[in-house]
Structures are given as structure tokens and as C-alpha cells.
UniProtKB/TrEMBL annotation:
Natural source organism: Azonexus fungiphilus
Alphabetically ordered keywords of this record: Isomerase
Residue numbers annotated as active site: 155, 257
UniProt EC number: 5.1.3.15
Alphabetical list of PANTHER family matching this protein: APOSPORY-ASSOCIATED PROTEIN C-RELATED (PTHR11122), GLUCOSE-6-PHOSPHATE 1-EPIMERASE (PTHR11122:SF13)
Family of this protein: Belongs to the glucose-6-phosphate 1-epimerase family.
GO molecular function: carbohydrate binding; glucose-6-phosphate 1-epimerase activity
Gene3D superfamilies in the cross-refs: 2.70.98.10
Any GO BP: carbohydrate metabolic process
Stated name of the protein: Putative glucose-6-phosphate 1-epimerase
GO cellular component, one term: cytoplasm
Length: 282
């Protein structure tokens, strides 16, 4: 099958399915411009999507790649993770070639966003699917007359068989702010990160790609533009408090997020900012 793009319904909501080379595929919903599935040529699903996720727009969909903007988490006055996770985005570009399929979804300010955050903006989320890789690029445009500041993230939920068995390499030597430990700032001295409890870390000014060692779900992870990397797993107790995660959900996910979380980004009137996360099956 040649690469291409089809309009589908996914869990009852409008979405696009990208068919890439060698049988790869991805699904992106218009709700939140959220990527909800990525299947590599080996037939394996690489993203975690909760079986208890809610798709009616009342809350963000639990899983895939939520787009957080203009605020990461609860680090500010706005709703948690900002304003765009529960909006309907427009499809502004779609194209495919022999070795890729690509879509761009966009959204911008409206009366509801300006009531909470008084700035004019346009956002574009581009998903490019190739055989063994996806690139997700967020473009923020300041379309107003005044500068603004924002934080943001591509809050990627990676699917793993057992989170206790995986290791994330590439973050050693970086400082992180530990949100699971009263925001204490620590320096990672281990050569790899393993998860054996609630983990909620903002690694700052990340300079290297990461390698997720997770058996046949292993991935290379790279980011550009986004200065920080957030690693999140709710573990048992926090998972039990999240109504849209099953009791064992914590075990099957690891969020590795490309973020501007600790470092606020400044954007002058008329300027654009780009941030990208690349996932490669290895
Ligand atoms: O429940 P959500 O609003 O989707 O947030 C889920 C998680 O997102 C980020 O990774 C934050 O660092 C966590 O503190 C937060 O719990």
C-alpha cells in the first residue's frame, strides 16, 4: 500500500489515519491534535492509550501525545497543561510521498482562550510518519502586537510491557526538578533511569538524545527547540486516583515529554517558535 491519509472515526471522534511505508501507521485526533496511535512495521503499537480514556472533550484524552500550551502542568494560573488539549483543531495540511505521510493541524486564540490568557497566537502541530519513525513538531506563532511567554510540552505516553523492566539512557549529568519530591533540584548521576516509584522529573537543558531500552518496544528519542525533558510515571497510588487510568495502567506507560517546562520561552510579536520530538524504533 502506498503512503496516504484517510479520515476516520477513532473511539467515536474525528481523526486522521496516516498510512506510512512498510505497513506503518499513525492516528491523530482533531480533538487536541492528539496523536493516539503509532504502529511500526513490526506491527507493534508504540504509544500508550488508556482503555479508560474519555473522548468527549470534557477532559484531555489519557494517552498518546497531548499538546500542552501555553502552560506546562500546574506551573502558573491557567488550567493544568494549558488551553488546547480539549479544543477541536483544524486540518491545515496533508500530503504523502513514497516514503512518508504528513499532516498539520492548527488552532489559534478565540474568545474563550483570550478570557484566560490575553494573547493572540496560532499553533501548528505537524506529524510526519516514516517507516520506523515519527516526528512531531509544534510551531507557536505570536500573531499579536505584544510579546508573550509560554511553557509547553509534547506529553508523549510511551507504551511499555512492564515499566519496572525498562531503562532510559541519556539523562545522566543533567539537573532535574523533582515534582514527586517537593520540587527538589537534584543531579542525575546514574547512567540510566529506572522507575521503581512515582516519577515526575523535569530534566533541564537536555543536550543529548535518549535511548529507551524496553525489549522489542525500544526507541531512540530526540528533541530540538524544547530545552527540557519530563519523565513521568504515576506508579500505583497516584494511578489509583486517576479515574481515566485502569488500576494497572502505571505499569504499561512511561511518559517521556519534550518540554519547555522549567524554562519559559519568550516570543516577540510576529515571531515563531519551533519545538520537535522524534521517536525512532531501534
Ligand atoms: O493528569 P494530567 O493533567 O494529564 O497530567 C499528568 C502529568 O503530567 C506531567 O507529566 C506532570 O509533570 C505531572 O505532574 C502530571 O501529573
Amino acid at each position: 500500500m502506498k503512503p496516504g491519509i484517510e479520515d476516520i472515526e477513532f473511539h467515536g471522534i474525528p481523526a486522521l489515519r496516516l498510512h506510512g511505508p512498510q505497513g506503518s501507521s499513525a492516528v491523530i485526533a482533531r480533538l487536541g491534535a492528539q496523536v493516539l496511535s503509532w504502529i511500526t512495521p513490526d506491527g507493534r503499537e508504540r504509544l500508550y492509550l488508556s482503555e479508560r480514556a474519555v473522548f468527549d472533550g470534557s477532559v484531555a484524552i489519557r494517552g498518546g501525545v497531548p499538546v500542552c500550551f501555553p502552560q506546562f502542568s500546574d506551573r502558573g494560573e491557567l488550567p493544568r497543561h494549558g488551553l488546547v488539549r480539549t479544543r477541536q483543531w483544524e486540518v491545515s495540511a496533508r500530503r504523502s510521498g513514497d516514503d512518508y505521510a504528513l499532516v498539520t493541524l492548527s488552532t489559534g486564540d478565540d474568545a474563550a482562550s483570550r478570557a484566560l490568557w490575553p494573547h493572540a497566537f496560532n499553533l501548528e502541530l505537524t506529524l510526519m510518519l516514516e517507516a520506523d519513525r515519527i516526528d512531531l513538531e509544534l510551531c507557536v506563532a505570536n500573531t499579536g502586537e505584544l510579546p508573550f511567554e509560554f511553557t509547553a510540552a509534547l506529553h508523549t505516553y510511551l507504551r511499555v510491557v512492564q515499566v519496572e523492566d525498562v531503562a532510559l539512557e541519556g539523562l545522566y549529568g543533567h539537573d532535574y526538578r523533582d515534582a514527586a519530591n517537593a520540587d527538589a533540584v537534584q543531579r542525575d548521576s546514574g547512567t540510566e533511569l529506572t522507575v521503581d516509584g512515582e516519577t515526575d522529573r523535569i530534566y533541564r537543558r537536555v543536550r543529548r538524545p535518549q535511548l529507551l531500552r524496553a525489549g522489542n518496544l525500544s526507541l531512540g528519542i530526540q528533541q530540538q527547540g524544547f530545552p527540557d525533558t519530563v519523565v513521568w510515571n504515576p506508579w500505583v497510588d497516584k494511578c489509583a486516583k486517576l479515574a481515566d487510568l485502569p488500576a494497572d495502567g502505571w505499569r504499561h506507560l512511561l511518559c517521556v515529554e519534550a518540554a519547555a517546562a522549567d524554562t519559559r520561552q519568550q516570543l516577540a510579536a510576529g515571531d515563531e517558535w519551533y519545538g520537535r520530538q522524534t521517536l525512532v524504533a531501534v
